[in-house]
Amino acid sequence: MRDKPKRTRIQRKNIETILEAALEVFSQYGFRGSTLDQIAQTAGLSKPNLLYYFPSKEAIHVELLSELMDTWLDPLRALDAGGEPIPEILAYVDRKLEMSRDFPRESRLFANEILQGAPRIEEAIKGELKELVDEKAAVISGWIDAGKIAPVDPYHLIFSIWSLTQHYADFEVQVQWILAERSKTSFEDAKAYLDQLFTKMLRT
Predict the structure, then answer these.
(1) CATH topology of domain 62-202
(2) Within 13 Å of residue 132, how many CA atoms lie on the same side as its CB?
(3) Which residues mediate DNA binding here (predicted)?
(4) Rounded to the nearest 10 degrees, what angle do helices 36-43 and 9-33 cross at?
(5) What number of H helices and E strands is found in the chain?
(6) Helix/strand/coil (H, E, C) string of 138-170?
(7) 3 pLDDT band (50/70/90 cuts)?
(8) Is 124 in contact with 67 (CB distance < 8 Å)?
(9) Most buried residue, 31, 74, 80, 200, by CB count within 10 Å?
(10) In this structure, how many other beta carbons lie within 10 angstroms of the beta carbon of residue 25?
(11) CATH T-level assignment (fold) for domain 1-55
(12) Distances from the Cα of 97 to the Cαs of 62, 72, 125, in angstroms?
């Protein structure tokens, strides 16, 4: 069986351009509201040129989600069972908040997919994501059993971290409008608030 030919520099550049354009379009309009024409126009490519690299809108969306899933799991993977519980959990909160600050479009892409019932990443959620959450929930339960943190439901603790950090990406415009002149420091302020909130919640 012959190996697939390696992509040229121009081909790699065009794929990156298409994915960047698709991220912009999907994060703004969602999967259903986006079209190949919009993606091609945003990428500065013709539609036939785009279809040379990706056969459909769904193929582009799946590629973006596949790349995103691994990045999305990294902050939780870094939660260290051998570390001090409260600093480890606060560090996870901070990593998730940083992702909302640095990757707001990716967060909205993921949120839109979940709101649609996750048809393109269902297996990843049921498999890789669930396995990782189960593993880290067991770590948190171990800390609780050892009396190192206050008793909380580990799964709902993780869910609350997701919701409280991803809010700043998924509702970015709302946060900016409400905070107005304070919006430039919104992530620093959010970090201080969330650190205080979770410290008080977890302290025994």
Answers:
(1) Tetracycline Repressor; domain 2 (1.10.357)
(2) 17
(3) 35-54
(4) 140
(5) 11, 0
(6) HHHHHHHHCCCCCCCCHHHHHHHHHHHHHHHHH
(7) very low
(8) no
(9) 31
(10) 26
(11) Arc Repressor Mutant, subunit A (1.10.10)
(12) 25, 12, 21
Cα 190 from Cα 62, distance rounded (Å): 32
Angstrom CA distances, 60 to 27, 57, 63, 100, 121, stand at: 13, 5, 5, 22, 13
pTM of the model: 0.86
What tens digit of pLDDT does each residue of 13-27 get?
Answer: 999 999 999 999 998
Q: How far apart are CA 121 and CA 170, in angstroms?
A: 19
Rounded Cα–Cα distance for residues 134 and 17 (Å) = 36
How many Å apart are CA 42 and CA 29, to the nearest integer? Answer: 13
Record the tokens describing residue 84, joined without a space.
């001090």
What is the chain's mean pLDDT, rounded? 92
Report residue 103: phi and psi, to 5°.
-130, 55
Token pair in block for residue 29: 């309009």
